[in-house]
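subagent[fold] <- orchestrator: predict structure for attached chain, return tokens only, no commentary.
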Amino acid sequence: MPAGRLRPVDLAREHGLSTQAVRNYEDAGILPAAARTEHGYRTYTGRHAQALRAFLALVPGHGHATATSIMRTVNEGATEQALRLIDESHAQLLEDRRTLQAVERALRSLVPPDAPEPEPEPGGTFIGPLARRLGLRPATLRKWEQAGLVEPRRDPHTGYRVYSAADVRDVRLAHQLRRGGYLLEQIAPLVRQVRAAGGLAPLESALHDWQARLSARGRAMLRGAAQLDTYLAEPTP
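subagent[fold] -> orchestrator:
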């Protein structure tokens, strides 16, 4: 093997990967195309090794699909598009932080168990208007009802679901927690706890965990950016 040339196994060993994974990353455009020996074997360079480091560092902060798109666009020479993809991930992280703050504000303003619950509008809110207000599908609200996240009453004459102020609060809370990555089975006991006003500790714990995951994602983005910057500084052949 000529000086400076690396085999697939050399790249794979650094990260505990299989050589097939390295080849798959090249085929996906995550690594730039490798040179071939006269016998058809792939040969890599330090630039390929840094591309792999950059990709694996990007995945925890951006996700596999976005990290793949970032590396592919860089290798196609579309660096500005790659930077826009990174900006979009940072914008989503900021939006998720704002969502967390909104949940925390909702937590601080929960209705006490003995306080009257004013209707959001006379007679309550129907499923269609509520779904449109939150950017959800009515089918999603019906699914959440089946999971015990919300318990709207039924209009005695039409049978339509009618959401009270408390129901709307529960739906908003469920929606925000879903945005935070929680599963329905994780959200249901939290919403029930809020509804019964039997204590806020479970929700406080969930919010603390959510905050920790956002912080971990932010730091992962920083690590990915550092590795990608090093890759961008590599001389291209």
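orchestrator: received. Logging for downstream: The radius of gyration is 25 Å. The CA atoms of residues 25 and 193 lie 46 Å apart.
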